[in-house]
Amino acid sequence: MDLSKFTKLKFWSNNIIEFYCRKEFEGVIPEPKPAAKYFPEWFKNLEPYIAARDKSSGDKRIMTAKRCLPLIDAMSLGFVIPLAADCHVLTNHDNSQILFNGLAGSFPIIESHDKRQVGGHSTIKRNNGDALKFLNYWVVKTAPGWSSLFIPPINNFSQPFTCLGGMVDTDKYTKEVNFPAVWHAHNFDGMIYAGTPLITVIPIKRNIFDKKPVIRKMTKKEQETHNQMNRIQNSRLSYYTNELRVKK
Questions:
Q1: 76-95 pLDDT, tens per residue?
Q2: Is residue 147 part of a domain?
Q3: Which residues fall within 8 angstroms of residue 12, CB to CB, at 6 or more apart?
Q4: What predicted TM-score, i.e. pTM, was given to this entire model?
Q5: Where are the alpha helices (DSSP H) in the chain?
Q6: How far apart are CA 206 and CA 120, in angstroms?
Q7: Looking at the domain assignment, is residue 12 inside a domain?
Q8: How many domains does the chain have?
Q9: Residues 182-205 as b or e (16 or more Cβ within 10 Å = b)
Q10: First-last CA distance in the chain
Q11: Residue 34 within any structural domain of the chain
Q12: Host domain of residue 144
């Protein structure tokens, strides 16, 4: 591949993953960004505490998901590839017709797939139309031995579509990866805009896991540790956050 035709992004100081696009797209299509830049609106609008239902319990407030660091850590993991350009989508009452019209001019944004390629209506509930494919103009390049896991943005429920997950050996496949998707919203007539998060990319070291998990019962020592942790959690707030969690 002639990389002189491509522009690389190196705004993360790591040697595991990078993104590059053809020069004609530089400054035109939105750039991938860390997933932490794309927290969903429901989460950003959530208050960190709510009032306790049981006033007599003495607890004046209850923590919400806004204070859940495991949830935040998961949503911050990886990098998001956004939609390349604005696109108008029109669907009918059962999504048996899905029309789309990208505003990108010289490059397409969405293509359709025969729904039978993903199992048809029996697989995609509430959707009688074809599956879609979002076209991506960023090449994902990972270090030798590393693949890329492509999954829908974690805990983002507001999108009218869901991209399907997949994994690609992006240390060897040096081309753009496109994203098959299922459209959910019926009677939709509106725009999805450039910059809309499409997919989260998480670099994965290949062959890091055993083929089969170890399944066993808890040892006596592990049971003692488990019980001790219960006692500590019952005695003070934010035990995991302040004492166990590794800072990301």
A1: 999 999 999 999 999 998 88
A2: yes
A3: 18, 34, 79
A4: 0.84
A5: 41-44, 69-75, 220-235, 239
A6: 32
A7: yes
A8: 1
A9: bbbbeebeeebebbbbbbbbbbbe
A10: 36
A11: yes
A12: 3-51+66-205
